Amino acid sequence: MLTALILVCSLATAAPDLADCTRDNALDVVYVPATFATPANCLMHGQAYLAGSEMGRNLTRNEAVKVVCVRSPSNRIDKAESSR
Q1: Which of 6, 12, 68, 78 has the least C-beta neighbours within 10 A?
Q2: Is the dihedral of CA 20, 25, 27, 28 positive or negative?
């Protein structure tokens, strides 16, 4: 299973293509509190999660967002999955 890791980075450190935007230099790092079976779902829901959040609505001109799908920790259980 995958979870979305949202990185908000400064364009001053991550320009020009966000390849330099990592967990270590991000201004904000957020894990989406859900898991996904496919990378496409993970990316789509990660972007939607950010767009619906206060952080996503308050991005400045010198900030950029990078959504990365990572394997979720094995001890973490998604509530939607546990009810099946």
Answers
A1: 12
A2: positive
Q: For the chain, where are the E strands, in sequence order? A: 2-10, 28-31, 63-71
Q: Which two tokens stand for residue 23?
A: 């967990």
What sign results for the dihedral spanned by CA atoms 81, 46, 6, 68?
A: positive
Nearest-angstrom CA–CA distance, 25 and 39: 24
The tokens of 22 are what? Answer: 């990592």
In this structure, which amino acid lies at residue 7?
A: L
pLDDT tens digits in sequence order for the chain, 84 residues long: 999 999 999 888 755 667 778 888 899 999 999 999 999 999 999 999 999 999 999 999 989 899 999 997 655 555 555 444
